[in-house]
Specification:
Helices cover 22% and strands 25% of the residues. By secondary structure, it is of the alpha+beta class. The protein has a single domain (5-104), classed as HIT-like (HIT family, subunit A), CATH 3.30.428.10. A five-stranded antiparallel β-sheet has the order 1-2-3-5-4, with helices on one face. The protein is globular, with a radius of gyration of 13 Å. The termini are far apart. The protein binds adenosine monophosphate (AMP) and zinc ion. Adenosine monophosphate (AMP) binds at residues 5, 30-32, 40, 83, 89-92.
């Protein structure tokens, strides 16, 4: 999607380093980390939020991606967060799963 910052990142427009990637998603560091380690798991397809995602299998694979990315980053203990909707704090309207580990400042 044209004006979506995460689509641009996925497209390589900003040269963002991916700490992990697979067919379904890319994983990169949050630019404004709210924990010692703060990663974002972002599906390659543009879906605004969890409310717009109807692909059950993809959602399952995204959660597996969380696990794989956490393992690759050496995280044993972490919190996952999905903000859905403006009032819940969603700022980027391309679905993403936060992975937070270490000291968390939320
Ligand atoms: P949310 O509030 O759940 O929509 O989360 C959006 C997250 O994306 C925030 O934690 C931002 O710090 C992060 N973010 C925004 N722009 C970028 C970017 N260019 N690279 C990495 N993270 C970003
Ligand atoms: Zn997008």
């Amino acid at each position: 999607m044209e004006d979506c910052i995460f689509c641009k990142i996925i497209n390589g427009d900003f040269g963002t380093e991916f700490v992990y990637e697979n067919e379904d998603a890319v994983v990169f560091k949050d630019i404004n980390p709210k924990a010692d380690t703060h990663l974002l798991v972002v599906p390659r397809i543009h879906v605004e939020s969890l409310n717009e995602l109807n692909d059950e299998a993809l959602l399952g694979r995204l959660m597996m991606t969380v696990k794989e990315a956490a393992k690759k980053a050496g995280l044993k203990s972490y919190r996952t967060v999905i903000n859905t909707g403006k009032e819940a704090g969603q700022e980027v309207f391309h679905l993403h799963i936060h992975i937070l580990s270490g000291r968390i400042k939320l």
